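Risk register update: the risk of archive-format incompatibility is retired. Evidence:
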Amino acid sequence: MKNLKEWEFSLFFDANKGLNNCTPFQSINLERLFEIYTSQYLKEKSNELSQSEGREREILKSQLPYFTPTGVYSYRNNASILNFNSSILPLDIDGLTKQDALRVMRTLSKQRGCVLSIISPRGKGVKALFYLGCEIDKNNFYQTLESNINTIAKNLNIEEFEENIDKAQFKLCQPFFISYNVFNHFDLKAKPTHWGIENKPKKIKEYKPPTITQRTPTSSIEEKRIYAYFDKLCKKDEMFFASLKAGERHANIWRVGGVCSNLHYAPYLEFEFKDRLFNAVCSMYENYDEFVHSRAKKTFEDIWENTSPKHNEILEQIIYEYQNLPK
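Archived output:
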């Protein structure tokens, strides 16, 4: 099992591209990471960020460096990991009051295994790194941590804040933004936790190709039923996108693939539902420029273009019923 001295990270920094920069600046160890956290640049930018709002806040956040806690990457995607930190637990706990954030930060800092615990610039969230007393399988990293949130919260004495633990931070190549706060805890000599978590196997779904494609309805009733099905799916996504907070937007654009993967059953509906979902995703951002510059538009287009057609039993049943009606 890797110890703290063996942990390595990829550091990303481009003040113009921010999160859209996926090419690492350099590889660093834990000691260097702590030096960056307490640098004058971070102190100044974090102070500016704590007092900013809206678009200005997004611009300032893009000027913060970030790193990948799970290891070293040649490019920020899961396939490009070069060196994996198998004993690390990254935590992002948000949506707190300032009082609760301080309480959570101090609680975590007292726990065995706490390597880092720091309050976010606005004082309403906590970032932390823990040295686990077990190893996590790289291929099941998200599944293992996500399914053990209750165990994690219980062992860290933050059960009442379990719902505030952001699961997105468990994604293998998820960025971990670096910012300074006077309320912090750093420990280069942390000991591994006395507790561990059980690795969960990744669920592999067997691909079942659709048996019907490019279908043209033979009756108005069939057409209405198919439309109603897609309309329901689309409305669900529209409502979901409208409910997301700023930090949750980009990571959830993949959901448009659910509708897209079924439109081969009704290609004549693609223009309408693609347009509706495009507008729903765009509306999550302050304006069209932010939608483009944050690369959300490109992500949407990539997902839409690369989503594979899937088998859908409900749509196939509807179509089957009308295919077999007597003429």
